[in-house]
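Appendix C. Worked example: Bifunctional uridylyltransferase/uridylyl-removing enzyme
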Amino acid sequence: MPFLNRRVSEAAAPPAAVPQPADPEGVIEVGSLLPRMAALAAEGPGGAASPAVRASVQAFLKGRIAEGRRQAEAMLFSDGSGLGCARRLSALQDEVIRAILDFAAAHVFDAANLSSAERMAVVAVGGYGRGALAPGSDIDLLFLLPWKQTPLGEQLVEYLLYMLWDLGFKVGHATRSVEECVRLSKEDMTIRTSILERRLIHGEPALFAELSARFAKDVQEGTGRAFIAAKLAERDARHAKSGDTRYLVEPNVKEGKGGLRDLHTLFWIAKDFYRAEREEELVAAGVFSRGEAATFRKAADFLWAVRCHMHFLTGKAEERLSFDIQPEIASRLGYNSHPGLRDVERFMKHYFLIAKDVGDLTGIFCAALEDEQAKESPGMVMGFVRSLRHRSRKIPGTLDFLVDHDRITVADAKVFAKDPVNLVRIFALAAALKLEYHPDALKLIRRSLRLVDRTLRENPEANKLFLDVLTDRHDPELHLRRMNEAGVLGRFIPDFGRIVSMMQFNMYHHYTVDEHLLRSIAMLSKIEKGAFEHDHPVSTEIVATMRDRTPLYVALLLHDIAKGRPEDHSRAGAKIALELCPRFGLDERETELVSWLVADHLIMSMVAQQRDLGDRKTILDFAEKVQTLERLKLLTVLTVCDIRAVGPGVWNGWKGQLIRNLYYETEPVLTGGFSQTPRAKRLEGAKAALAARLADWSAAERERYIDLHYQNYFLTVSLDDQVRHAEFVRAADRGADPIATVARTDAFTAITELTVLCPDHPRLLSLLTGGCAAAGANIADAQIFTMADGRALDVINLNRAFAEDADEMRRAARIDAHIRALLGGREAMPGLIAKRRGARGPAAFAVQPQVTIDNQLSNQFTVVEVEGLDRPGILSDMTGALADLSLDIRSAHISTYGEKVVDVFYVTDLTGMKVSSESRIERIVRRLTAVFEEPDGEATSPAAMRSDRAFGIRTAQQ
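Step 2, the predicted output written as structure tokens:
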């Protein structure tokens, strides 16, 4: 007989409060489970309780579950309904649990007729209680007892749990009486929330009904506000933990901001506070409009579809939508590429738009809750609006807006309809008065977006008010963010609307394009207020002396506004700036300045990180491009804000130092202070300055040391560094080891500098960078100096990995050991690098290798620029390839942009001349391209390794 001789026919239906897709189709067909299980018990030796029968039943259920999941996945592909898939999986789980319990009661324990003390209800709680499961979801069960556990009840529970665990399910469970459920729900909000989402799967309906009645009366009644506060605080803490933004490019679909958990929070509050079982009841209560209720259903269905696809694809409960699975999920959901946007980027844009919808719904919901609480307050007679006015104060100069507890709100529901400029004015007033926004006002704004039309966009007053918001001296990001979240910003500036929620499929950008722009403006505001005086002294000084702030703020807002178009976004953005700036009220000079800044907003970062700043032609070419001191100043600040807003870990002090150096080198050129002192005279002065600093050395020792270095060293290395190098070389010469290293840390630049002195060799830099790669170190820059006695003095700048200097020095010691092992032939490069290649890398990405050879960027050197997909040891392979090509590397400038490397080498041939032969240039391009296309090919060939080992022997002999 069935378990407890009771079945709950409606138990398989999803709870009504779960949003339903419009027309879910398809039911999983796995056949009737119990008859086959009973047959297996009858056929098997030793009865139903025997291990053999249990194994047969388990194998049967595994097969049926696998088949059911295959059907669910096929239906998900067919109808695209995420909620439909989640409900089908939940229904399948229900059938499995019922079948196991009925089988255990009737065949294993022969307990068809139970006493009243043995009655039990098996209740789904938590996420399972909603009647929606992803393939990898936990199964949360409550075994509900009338009083206390009986031996038979304990046996049934144990049999079910062990069977579910053996079937591969993750099961959370509790066994409690009704009284215990009520008491624990009062004490613990987590337990209360779990039981709030209860659903009877099997067993005694009367017992379940008793729990429902007691829960409503003893737990929920009179405690709604406390529950709401707890859930919203829990949500805020979860958001803070995940970065407090819904625009992370690898979002957590379940726990992230704008994800399923936010929808669940709304569901919990609706069920607890409003006692709502369907979204239609929230419409009837005035919480949502019908359109907003439809948005709620659409968001839930989409997020469930993404989550179910992720679990099916990975075979586990994967909740983070990582780069490596985004393309496959996009393909599963049927997205196609469009000009300017790949299929995966279109998918992720849709994802972030849905996440934004979830945020909008949360704001609307919170506004409704505040209304309800206001209605419940004492003295309420004529409704919320009258109460609002009693506790609000007027804003001088306007009758349309009020201040309610430091939040701006509307005086009535018609303020935007009678004057659409109010849709911008409300943000300008909030900025001027340092106010936050009442949820009621934001709800009305969202419902009035149709009023943002061409007439409003071209309204001079509206544009002036917008500039006031953009250039607010207190917190422009806050008000622009609220404007964006409400939908006004994207409608007021349609070009901005095109990049709302747009992501770029790479590991470099951590946020969507609109989020990046808002964060860059926040950075400028903080610099202007002096918050980064230590980190950005030059930018802070520039901003403090700016006569006109507006062009810089406008340029930051627009610098990436043309992302996602087929043409270059910088040039396309400059054209947009030429159209928008006059509309904003900027004059011709300001418009031209903004357009130039947008067009060339990447040039300073590129030159600083990828060019040799010690090469005078680099500075002169950059100055010619910039032309004016005003442009240089604004570009410097814009570059800092742009990089800082890319994401955590992208900015470091080394990049700041490079930008400062470029600024300081270029400023005198633009102001006429640069003097064309002959190279010979500058060289003579540099040698004399070093000799003066080495005054405690003997004259012969001093002269001998200075003669070790070639001209380029004195003209490119600072005097302080020359002195340090001199002491380092002097100490090394007094020892017997031909290899000497020294490391020093710099917290301000976040760089650890490793200086190596050893016999020179064409593959030396390859071995040094290989030793760094083996320790997992990221190289920021490298300077290579050949000395007259056949040794090399190489300076490697490593991005800092640890907060403590002691940890950095231990890492430097590991690098030193790797370098010595490579130079001495005790380690081969492939084996050493292979140890680092097991970690997760940029396998999800494809970057077309590109090699550019340029003889115009420097008067002395050929500049080789290489772009391609990053991987451990790539720099070592590239420098090894350059050595094989008989090229002498004079300096290397290493840049990493997520999965992409852009490495620039200043080289000569072995005679010290530029590479001018076309055939040789073609060989260089082919060889360096092969490094990316054949990572285990020529660059790490046996011949190359033999060359490394031979070098180790020669070093030892020398």
